[in-house]
Design brief:
Blueprint lengths: L5 E10 L2 E11 L4 E5 L6 H8 L7 E6 L2 E2 L11 H8 L2 E4 L11 H13 L3 H14 L15 H14 L4 E5 L7 H16 L4 E4 L3 H7 L2 E6 L2 E6 L1 H6 L4 H11 L1
Helix pairs in contact: 3-4, 3-5, 4-5, 5-6
Length: about 250
């Protein structure tokens, strides 16, 4: 039996006594695009950040191709060196682009492979050019972030994640900081990655992307996974009353 790329079980997380995640679970197969939807405050972003241990879960297990992330089987925290190696296998694209302002697009993308993966500067820059072309930014490799639009900066951030050769990429509302006219160029790149077989977990409010591109849509509310299934099931025939109410508000 082929192991899933990612498997999360029983994930719980509280902040200041408020429980944000309650036994959240998710399994992601090779080449699958999973989209998490739900109201603000439902736990989607916290769940995503727990998947690569940017947030430390209070309970539960995260496995990447069977390997435990963050803790060993006895519950002991991994060392920072081990955790850093594990995180390097999972790409993460944030709401905010988090690019180095003093570096060109090319150097922003090349820095991770050089510092974390240990590849030569020449190889890192060549690979960075390839990934920037993949997100249609090959004409802007020498520009700094201040010379790029928000959509262009986010595409550089996606190229930066790709350059680490991750086994999957997590996207945390990657278009939420963009002006509406810039959303399409980022969504189009994400759709191309999905069609190319990249394994992806996406938190987004872009319902058209979820309907058209996702293999599976997961609806969360109150820190729980309420319902999941193919897009046509979730959007056209949701089983849970809470899902129906959420989608009804979108169409109101």
């Amino acid at each position: 039996m082929v192991k899933p790329v990612l498997q999360a079980t029983g994930v719980c997380k509280s902040f200041a006594g408020r429980q944000v995640l309650r036994d959240a679970a998710l399994t992601v197969a090779e080449r699958e695009t999973v989209v998490l939807i739900g109201p603000s405050g439902s736990g989607k972003t916290t769940f995503l950040r727990c998947l690569n241990w940017l947030e430390t879960p209070d309970a539960g297990q995260i496995r990447l191709r069977g390997d435990l992330i963050g803790r060993d089987v006895a519950g002991r925290e991994h060392s920072e060196a081990v955790l850093s190696r594990q995180r390097s296998r999972i790409g993460f694209v944030f709401q905010r682009f988090n690019l180095f302002a003093h570096q060109s697009a090319l150097d922003n993308v090349a820095t991770g492979p050089r510092r974390v993966l240990g590849v030569s500067a020449e190889e890192a820059r060549e690979h960075a050019r390839t990934e920037l072309a993949r997100v249609h930014m090959d004409q802007h490799v020498d520009k700094r972030p201040s010379q790029l639009s928000g959509g262009q900066q986010q595409r550089v951030a996606i190229a930066r994640a790709l350059a680490m050769r991750p086994e999957l990429i997590l996207f945390d509302e990657p278009t939420s900081a963009l002006d509406p006219e810039l959303v399409t160029e980022v969504v189009d790149v994400m759709r191309e990655l999905a069609q190319g077989g990249m394994t992806m977990v996406v938190v987004t409010h872009e319902m058209r992307f979820a309907r058209q591109t996702a293999d599976r849509v997961v609806f969360m509310d109150g820190g729980l996974v309420i319902e999941q299934g193919p897009p046509e099931q979730i959007f056209d025939a949701p089983q849970a009353e809470r899902t129906r109410r959420f989608l009804g508000h979108l169409h109101a």
